[in-house]
Amino acid sequence: MAYLGDGSGAPNGEIELTQDEIADVLKALVQSDGRVQRLDLPNRRLWIKRQGVKVLPRFVSLQGLAAALLRVPHLRPSPQLSPAAMQAREIARMRAFAGAGFPVPLIAYQSKTAMVMTDAGETLAQRLKGLRKTDPDAHEALLVRAAEALGRVHAAGLSHGRPHVRDFFLRDGDVGFMDFEEDPASVMPLEMAQARDVFLYFLVVASASIRPDETCPAALAAWSRHASVAARHELQVLTALAGRILPLIRLIGRVHMGSDLRRFIMATEFLRQAPLPEAENLNTAKAGHYG
Questions:
Q1: Closest Cα to residue 201, out of 243, 167, 252?
Q2: What are phi and psi of 261, to 5 degrees?
Q3: Of 118, 151, 182, which residue constitutes the final position of a domain?
Q4: Domain check: are 136 and 253 in the same one?
Q5: Do you know which InterPro entries this protein is assigned to (predicted)?
Q6: 76 in a domain, yes or no?
C-alpha cells in the first residue's frame, strides 16, 4: 500500500491507495484536463476536481450588480479567486465541516489546483429521484432531514453557500456535504449567509416536494430548531426583500416562466407566510441598510 501524495491537508487524513491505483490516478491527471472527472478503479471510484477551468454562468458575473441595484445584499457573490486560492478555500471549508463532525468526501491527493477525492456515493438528488415514485413518505422525510442537517451546520457556526440536494449525500445515516466553492460568509455576516442558505434550499423544497403544504413547514421547523435568532431574523429580512421584487419576477415569468423563476416564486410565497418568530424591525430590509 502507498500514498499518492500530499493528502495531509485533507479533512479526514490521507487515503491509502495501491501502487496500481496511484498509476491510474497519475495517468488520469496527465491525460485529461476536465474540471470534474470520474475515475472508476477496480476496487473504488474516485473523483478528480480541478480549479480554474470552470466557465461561470452569465448570471454569476451579474450577481454583484443585481445585489446592488435590487438592494438585496444576500445576493453578493463570493470573491472570484485564483485557482490556487480557490483550492485553498475549498479545502479549508471541507476541513471546517469535517472538524464540526459533518461527513465530507475524503481526499487522496491534492496539488495547488487539483484534488482527488473518494466517491461520496449516491447524492440526495439521486435518492430523491428514486423515492419519488417508490416511497413518497420517505421522499418527503428526506427533504426534512436535509433541512435539519442544514440547521445543525448553522448551529456549528458554518454556512454551506450552495445548499442543493445534489451537493448532499448520506454516510452511515448522516447527511454529508460537498462542493464548497461558494463562501458567502466571506462577503457578508454569517447569519446573512445562513439565511441565504435556507432560502436557496427552499428553492428545492418548495418545488420538489410532493406534499408542499406539509413538507415545507416541517422542513422549516426542522431547520429552525437549530438556527440562531439572528439567522431566523435574517431569513425574514431576506424574504421581505424577495417579496419586494416578486412582482417583477412574475412579470418576467409572463414572458418566459423558466424553472428558476418558478422555484423563486414558490419559495418566496411560502417563506413570506412561514411561521417564524416575527423579526423585531423589518425596516432593516429597507434599501441601503447593508450598504
A1: 167
A2: -65, -40
A3: 118
A4: yes
A5: Kinase-like_dom_sf
A6: yes
Range of the domain at 47: 19-118
DSSP-derived 3-state class of residue 181: coil
Whether residues 166 and 106 fall in one domain: no
Give the pLDDT mean for 163-178. Answer: 94
d(C-alpha 239, C-alpha 53), whole Å: 34
pLDDT of residue 156 exceeding 60, the answer is yes
pLDDT-derived band at 191 (thresholds 50, 70, 90) equals very high
- Structural domain total, the chain: 2
pLDDT at 275: 67
Residue closest to 141 by CA, chosen among 131, 153, 126: 131
Q: Do the Cβ atoms of 226 and 155 come closer than 8 Å?
A: yes
All residues at 6 or more sequence positions from 263 whose CB lies less than 8 Å from its CB, including other chains: 203, 204, 206, 207
Residue 256 pLDDT = 62
59 has a pLDDT exceeding 70? no
Give yes or no: residues 181 and 217 share one domain.
yes
d(CA 63, CA 186) in angstroms, rounded, equals: 16
Overall size of the chain counted in residues: 291
Q: Mean pLDDT for the chain?
A: 81
Decide if 11 is inside a domain. Answer: no
Instruction: Look at residues 83, 118, 153 and tell me which one is the last residue of a structural domain.
Output: 118
CA gap 240, 280 in Å, rounded: 13
Grid cell locating 19: 501502487
Inform me whether the pLDDT recorded for 234 exceeds 50.
yes
Would you say residue 291 has pLDDT above 70?
Answer: no
- Does residue 2 form part of some domain? no
What would the pLDDT profile of 238-252 be if each residue is shown by its tens digit?
988 888 777 776 777
Q: In what order do the strands lie in the sheet with 45-50?
A: 36-40, 45-50, 114-118, 107-110
DSSP reduced 3-state for 123: strand
Q: Are residues 105 and 75 in the same domain?
A: yes
